[in-house]
Amino acid sequence: MISEAPVYFCLNCFAGKEEKVRDAAEKCIETAGAGDFQVWFPLKQNREKRNGVFEMKDRPLFPGYLFIWWDGTDETVFPFREVQSINGAIRFLRYESGSRALMGADLAYAEWIHLNRGIIRESKVRLREGQRLQIVEGPLKGFDGNVTKVDKHGRRIKVRFDLGGLISEVSFSVEFLESHSKKIIEV
After folding, report:
1. Are 92 and 20 found together in one domain?
2. Strands 156-163 and 147-151
3. One domain for residues 112 and 22
4. Do 32 and 87 fall within a single domain?
5. DSSP assignment, residue 4?
6. What count of other Cβ atoms lies within 10 Å of the Cβ of residue 150?
7. pTM value?
8. Which domain does 126 fall in, by range?
9. 19-75: per-residue pLDDT in tens?
10. 97 and 20: one domain?
11. How many domains would you assign to the chain?
12. Residue 181 gets which letter from DSSP?
C-alpha cells in the first residue's frame, strides 16, 4: 500500500516483553534505514494505593501491543519480516486487504497515543445527577460514550476499546471534580 502521509502499525508481542521488543524493533528499523519512525509501548498512569497513600504508577495501556509511527509512504519497504523475527514479537496487525497500515478506529487510537506521547495521564471527570459521566479535561476527553463503568471510590472509570477487532475494557484513573449538585449518582 502506498500512502501520502506517515503510517502507523501495531505489533503484537508477548506481554511482559514489550520494552525489550520495543528496543530491538527500534534497532532493527534503524539498521534497515527505513526512515523516521517512533515505537511506543503505550502506558497509562494509574492511581494506586500503597500503605494508605495514593501514588501514580505507569502501567501498560494495551499489554502485549506496540505502536509504530513511520514516515514512509510505501509499506512494502518497511522491514516487517525483520521486526517480526525479534524474540518476543508475534505478528503485526493485518487487515483482510493485506495492509498492515492502521485504518479507521485503530488509526484513531494510534494517533491519540502519539498525540499523548505514549502516556495517557489522568483525566478530570464530572458526575451530575440525572446525567451521564462527562470527561471535561485530559486525554480521555471525547471518550464519554465509551465509558462502561464508574468507580468513584477507587477513582477509576472503564473505557471500551476495539483494537483490530479485539474489544477490551481498560481501567483509567481519573480525578472527580465537584458537582454543582449535592447528590451524585453512579452510572
Report:
1. yes
2. antiparallel
3. yes
4. yes
5. S
6. 19
7. 0.79
8. 122-187
9. 999 999 999 999 998 889 999 999 999 888 889 888 899 999 889 999 999 998 888
10. yes
11. 2
12. S
Sheet strand arrangement including 89-92: 37-40, 65-70, 7-13, 89-92
- The CA-CA-CA angle for residues 26, 107, 168, to 5°, reads 95
Q: Give the 3-state secondary structure percentages of the chain, helix then strand then coil, rounded to 5.
A: 20, 40, 40
Residue corresponding to grid cell 494505593: 49
Question: CB of 41 within 8 A of CB of 60?
Answer: yes
Q: Write out the DSSP string of 8-75.
A: EEEEEE-TT-HHHHHHHHHHHHHHHT--SEEEE--EEEEEEEETTEEEEEEEESSTTEEEEEE--SBG
Write out the three cell numbers for 45. Answer: 498512569
What value does the mean pLDDT take over residues 150-174?
Answer: 79
Please say whether the beta carbons of 178 and 24 come within 8 A: no
Residues 109 and 157 in one domain: no
Q: Residue 87: helix, strand or coil by DSSP?
A: coil
Q: Are residues 1 and 87 part of one domain?
A: yes
31 and 113 in a single domain? The answer is yes
> Does residue 149 sit in helix, strand or coil?
strand
| Residues 187, 145 share a domain | yes
